[in-house]
Structures are given as C-alpha cells and as structure tokens.
Amino acid sequence: MSQAVKAPKEPVRKPKVESYDLSHSDETLHLATDLAKFIKENKLTTNVQGKEFVNVEGWQYAGSRLGIVPVVEHVINVSNEQEIKYQAKVILFDLKSGQTVGAGFAVCSSKEQGKKFYQEFAIMSMAQTRAIGKAYRNILAWIIRAAGYEPTPAEEMDYAGNVPTVAETPAPVTAPQAASTAPVAMKAVPAEPVVAAESAAPAYASASQKEEIIRLLNHPVVTRAEKTKMLLNINRLDEERATQAIAKLKKAIDDRENGQTAAAA
To answer: Rounded CA gap, 121 and 201, in Å?
Structure first.
C-alpha cells in the first residue's frame, strides 16, 4: 500500500499593512521603519547644524498611515502697523474613531529673520503649516525619533538664528579736529524696497462651518470613503463652498434615511 505524499506547506505570507494603529506598539515600530525609508527617498528633511529635521510633508505621511488628518480650525490675523502676524490652530481628526486626537497652535510674523518682505498670504500660510507640524509632533514625536530623525518639525527651526553673530570691532578713537567751515554733502540713504500690498486673503470656511461638516460626516449613513474625501479637502473650502457642502450633506443624509441613495460629497 503506497503512502500518500504530502505537499510541502507554502510559507504563510503576511498581507502588506496599508494602515497602522497608534495603540499597537508593534505596528507603530513597523511604521517608523516605513517612515524612515519614505523620508529618505523623498528628501523630506532639512539639515540644521548637522541634525536632520523632518519637513511637514513627512509628518503628514506618518499621520496619513495612521488615518489621522489635520483640520485647520482657525487662522487669526493679529497684525499691527509694525508687523504682519497670523496665529493658526490645527486639530487632528482620527478617521477610524471619528474623534479629535490632538491639536497644535503656531504663529508666523514678518518680524522673524528672513521674513521682512514676505507677502501677507505667505505669513498666513506658514502659520498653518507650522500648526500642522506642531499638532502631529504632540502625538507622533516618538515615532519620528524611532525613525532616526529629530522630533521637532523643520518649520519650527529658526535657521537664521542658528548662525553665530560676529562681534563688531569698536572704531578707534581719534583726536578731535578743528571744525571745517566747508559744507558737508549729505550721503543719500537708499530707500527700502517697497512691497506691493497683497490682495485680501480669501475668506476660508469658518470654524463653525468646519465643525458642522465634521458633525454631519459622523452620521452612520455617510461612508468612510466619503468622509475621507471631504476631510482631505476641508481646509481648501471657502465660506461659499462650505455652505454648499453642508447643504449637500444634509440632503444626502435625509435621502438615505428615507431609503433613497445620493452621493454625500
């Protein structure tokens, strides 16, 4: 009686992880390895005094692998006659739980070194960028450190401030000379370049509008794909488009609750 030959067992292949869970330490360590590779391949760091600081795009990649997206809650103009200054607040929204899991505040001013002639929209944009990096840093700093980089967003570093200043040598004191009666020509002082006034910044969606959109997106009839799509674009909405999005979401929810189907976003 012949004995049946058993086929060799094929090695079990683990499926590729498409997303990670912050509560599972083994998964986040895998994320650190993946993150290090992504940052290196895409050159998403800035070198300051021999240390590598991750740009905001690297922090956003880490957050996206965890299903955590940034939402700009508000941008406040706190400028005065002497400077252009904006303050921004960003919250982190967990797509899996539907909860806020972090926040970050940041400011940007034209009085900072190297930003004297920045236009207003650039100051406002940098405040938001810094707030995004700060929000992610508050919850993901250890993952960035595990990936081999400094746990401070590159946008927070004051590059000009890291350059040592050279002490000025005092001018030698000379003996006083007799006053000359000849007229002295005044040296012309070059005028500072004039910066064209930036046009008024677009009226982005208000914090209350964004909160209403997020509240509607948490309704059970809204799919995860629709929620993700809307949240990824929520910071680009102006007031008019936000109003339209709220109306569209409400209509889609009503239709679905009444047995009809309609796209939510």
So the answer is: 6
How are the residues of the chain apportioned to helix, strand and coil, as percentages rounded to the nearest 5? 40, 15, 45
8 A C-beta contact, residue 130 and residue 156: yes
Tell me the residue type at 256: R
Residue with tokens 């081999």: 148
Where does residue 115 fall: left (phi above 0), alpha (psi -120 to 50 degrees), or beta otherwise? alpha
Q: Rounded to a whole number, what is the distance in angstroms from the first to the last CA of the chain?
A: 68
State the number of CA atoms in the 13 A half-sphere of 240 facing the CB: 2
Query: Residue 204: phi, psi to the nearest 5?
Result: -70, 165
> What DSSP designation does 82 have?
S
Higher-confidence residue: 224 or 2? 224
pLDDT tens for each residue of 170-221: 445 454 454 444 444 444 445 444 444 444 556 777 878 887 888 888 888 8
Split at pLDDT 50, 70, 90, the class of 2 is: low
- DSSP-derived 3-state class of residue 76: strand
Whole-model pTM: value is 0.59
